[in-house]
Prior knowledge:
Strand order of the largest sheet: 2-3-4-1-5
Number of helices: 17
Distance between the termini: 50 Å
CATH class of the largest domain: Alpha Beta
Structural class: alpha/beta
Amino acid sequence: MAEYAEIIKDLQKGKYAPVYFLQGDEPFFIDNITENIEHNALDDTQKSFNQYVLYGKDVTFTDVLNVARKYPMMGERQVVIVKEAQDMRDWKKEDPQKMLIAYLENPLPTTILVFGHKYKTLDRRTKISKALEKNAVFLNSKRIYDDKVPGWVRSYAQATGANVTEKAIMILTENIGNNLQRLANEINKLKLNVEDGQQIDEVAVQKYVGISKDYNTFELQKAISLRDEVKVMKIVQYFDANPSSNPLIMVIANLYSYFTKLLLIHHQGASDKNAVARAIGVNPFFATEYMQAARNYPAHIVIRNIQLIHQADLQSKGIGYAPMKDGNILKELIFKLMH
């Protein structure tokens, strides 16, 4: 089973395999590899007659293999991409599976065949899955855990040549979450809108992404951690006035993640900045703030607050509670968290 970074590295070197099978819950890695092949494996003069983009709901294995077995026209290779391959009905049919397995065992070397099988995975015990793992470049694209997202953003920014500050990274990840495609799009947009080599900070994020540098979930968490009630209420009022930019479900999810990190600090008893950073998966730059928050919120209060956040989540979904406006749910939750 291949890793995303390894596949991209080979593609950048112009090294292509006969078959790629890209599956899993995280569409960004699948789409990124597919687009790399689609855009770069052939030059523009070849694409019109040597590149085929098919869609799973419209084709069978027979259709795909008939195209894959063709020889390229006036070129050294052809590209056959099956997007939304998870919609193909043949994955559970024995005879079509046998045909695909036979091709995998002896693929046409002049064809690059790509299956983009998003949001689902094949049962690894099946013959077709085993054959793909053995004979294709096989990627299992997993979603990144929330605590790993800032590191991913940092790496992506560095790979694209964008110089993004740690605070800007935290604001982006706290407000966008683990939507890698949107994070990548925003990094690309920021890079286009600043001068080469210019640092991308929270001011740039506010200007070009639309996330306020003063009123965002990162600043809310910081104000809660310091028990700065005046600033907390200003941010909550801003959220209430701008619900589309600060949806309650996202704020609740971030607060849950934040207090879960505080509970982990209490559980591990870490007192050194670097140890805290490693324990909760943040940059050491922000560890001091978390340590201050842990002092302001003892373990039993953190546990209570996690329960309050869970209750607010249920209330926002109308489960077991009387209907209430999102802004009022948030105001009530924040008051309870801090008292």
